[in-house]
Amino acid sequence: MSKLFWAVFDAKQKEKTEEILATFEKEAKDEMGLMSITIALSNLLFPGTSVLHTRLKYVFFVGWIFLRAFDSKKDFTQSLHYYEKQLRYKLQKARDEGKKSDFLGLLGSTKIVKISKKENPEADNLSQPPFSIYFNLLKAWNIIKPEFKHISISELRDESMFDTKYLSIIKDKEFDMCSFKLTKIQKDYIKEKLPKSFLKTYLEGKYSSDIRFIEFDGVIDDEVQSHQLKMAQYFSILMWGSMIYYDYYLGNKSDEIKAKFDEWKVLLDKLPIEYKPQDTLELIKDDLNDKSLHEKRVMFINSWFEFVTKNKSHLELDTTIAIVINRDRVSIKEFLLEREYQLKADKSRLKQLSIQKIQEDSAARYGFYPLEYRWGNIMRFKRDF
After folding, report:
1. In this structure, what are the phi and psi dihedrals at residue 152, rounded to the nearest 5 degrees?
2. For residue 62, which of 133, 127, 156, 114 has the smallest C-alpha distance?
3. Measured between alpha carbons, how far is 371 from 233 in angstroms, rounded to an integer?
């Protein structure tokens, strides 16, 4: 059984590590080393969010948990878990008595809670409880006051660290602990606290909540936000092809992967002639600070871009057209194998396949979907609005 260990030196690194691990838990893969770019662009477009977020009402639920823990005479961490379980119990009970679809996104939904005086304090604790998942959002949205933005959960002292209006919403005697529905006051508060970003524009606007990220074409009046959105969309379209080819060379010759390839070729026409992937990377250059990895990653992206733009009118899955990297001409399969080998060495699946150490089949699904930048989570936020 494989094990993964990592060292975490600050809250930002911890957040990024948790997001990467959470993404892997959802069966996503990062065979081409695009994860850090995806996270950086996601942070730019949707500040404070993560792939772990499910429903907007948790923005207020976690505050309720914190306030109860402040008032408790027990250990702070134990109290947080205890009141999280009380919340989960209420939501699970309401779900079982009502319309189950209204409770999609209930964290710990399958870990049934039984509130009892004889309860084991550690029983039913979640490894990723909502108060931990949403803590950084509260800081990013200045719900926790800006002067405390560098603190950890263990350093929370009392309610004075929270925005006063937020506290009044949670303390309201009508505050509903049994539903994910937002009141007008709660929605207005979120609008007020959202950082200026595409996230704010999207949640406040009359846009569809059921359209893919690369297909979103709503009018964004803010030029900066519009540019950021387009750069993320173009990058997603560009790199989707490399992911599809990767699946194909692992042995996925299904009709579905062929349909995805045809769809990708159509989408390539959306890339403006003047677009360069560097235009996207420039937006997040401060987040890509590992110089050695960055250089290899940029070389991979630029080589792929040049290949696609020069040959897009006659691309095929079984193409024999060579791709140029470091002045050498190689097949697409060799190009992708080299990139994966840079990242995973002998764990590279294409490498193992080439020396017949593994047998892959049509189950490979890495390339079925383009880069979405947490879009699934954001669409659920939008529906909550």
Report:
1. -100, 170
2. 133
3. 8
What single string gives the DSSP state of each residue in 83-128?
Answer: HHHHHHHHHHHHHHHS-GGGGTT-TTTTS-----TT--TTTT--SS
Whether the Cβ atoms of residue 40 and residue 126 lie closer than 8 Å to each other? no
Contact 79, 69 (CB under 8 A): yes
Hey, what are 266's tokens?
């159509």
Cross-strand pairs, 225: none
The length of the chain in residues reads 385
Q: Is residue 297 exposed (0-12), middle (13-18) or buried (19+ Cβ within 10 Å)?
A: buried
Host H or E run for residue 250: none
CA distances from 141 to 88, 149, 374 (A): 24, 10, 17
pLDDT tens for residues 9-38?
444 554 555 444 444 444 446 888 999 999
| Number of continuous H segments (helices) and E segments (strands) in the chain | 16, 2
Question: What values do phi and psi take at 62, rounded to 5?
Answer: -65, -30
For tokens 């947490």, the residue is 374
- The SS3 call for residue 18 is helix
Q: What are 132-146's pLDDT values in tens digits? A: 999 999 999 999 999
Looking at the DSSP bridge assignments, the partners of residue 328 are 325
What is the rounded CA–CA span in Å between residue 202 and residue 196? 11
Mean pLDDT within 82-107: 94
pLDDT digits (tens, 9 = 90+) for 57-78: 999 999 999 999 999 989 999 9
This prediction has a pTM of 0.88
